[in-house]
Amino acid sequence: MLSDLEIYAVVPASDLGRAREFYQDKLGLEPIEERREGLIYQGAGGTKFLLYETQFAGTAQNTAMNWATKDLDAEMSELRGRGVVFEDYDFPGFKTENGVLADDDGRAAWFKDSEGNILALSEGM
User: What range(s) does the VOC domain occupy (predicted)?
Assistant: First the structure.
């Protein structure tokens, strides 16, 4: 049933115009479609996400969306060059170094968008 349906992420923005600029200028993404409810972006393999306006943006304290990459260092370098700042975390069993968590499953890094949403990149996970 649900396993046969397309999945897409939904990401909130308190200011859709500001968020659109962040996703364009910092992440290099352009929407493929503008709808009444927000902006549709498309990634590899037909994956998509909706960026929509709501007063509740940035309130979740968890990862909202992740991009899988084969070269985390290159992606981070490109994004840092565009002004993206990666988060550092230090929790029991979970510590990043220079923005990167490395464990037996792979490597990952987190950053926040203009709306306070936590986004991630992962390699080998």
Answer: 4-124
pLDDT band at 5 (very low <50, low <70, confident <90, very high): confident
Q: Report strand pairing: 106-112 vs 118-123.
A: antiparallel
Query: What's the mean pLDDT in 22-27?
Result: 98
Domains of the chain from N-terminus onward: 2-55+63-123 (3.10.180.10)
